[in-house]
Amino acid sequence: MKVEIYSDIACPWCYIGKRRFEQALDRFPGKEDVEVVYRPYQLVPDAPEAATPHRAWLAERYGPQSVAMDARVTELGRAEGIDYDFDAALHANTFLGHRLLHLAETEYGAAVQGELKEALLKAHFSDGADVGDREQLAEIAVGAGLDRDRVAGYLAGEEGAEEVRAQLAEARTLGISAVPTFVFEGRWAVQGGQEADTFLRVLEQVTAETAGDTEAAAACTDDSCAV
Question: What sequence ranges are listed for the domain DSBA-like thioredoxin (predicted)?
């Protein structure tokens, strides 16, 4: 089974959804036969290259309710083992990070890409890193197992940019407008940071549906980061 997860490095619900899906996968008997691949999505594609404080950006966009938004995510994240630090977090353009994830998938495989995704989310939400900065991205990538020279050369040019733009366009073609969105076998979509039990039921349902080769579809929505 192939699961493609459309998400953004700057989406806090994508971090929660990742953890909950992994919990479900750990409980799924067919775990070894599931390939998880991360696909790009940008909540703020026109974000400037220069990073700015997250708190200030969110307040400008959502007003006073931004404080409550962060507080809710922080509380829910804590239950999933995530330590959000929104006071230190930086609002940054995530395109370079998505290019790096593309490199990880194509040259190192899905498992390494997953490790890099976790590292990027932690760096952004817990460590106050600038995930739009090439040098910081290189350090994060090396920590996830990528070669430093390869990463430096890759980020210095435009390699992978066209492919990532094509994947971003594909997400729009599929009608994805909020993340995280989990696409199972290219046929079933689940949106939002669902509970682990929900993800487990979907994994079981998709397994049953593909075994029977039916056209039934599973879809549900919950908390997610909408454009």
Answer: 3-203
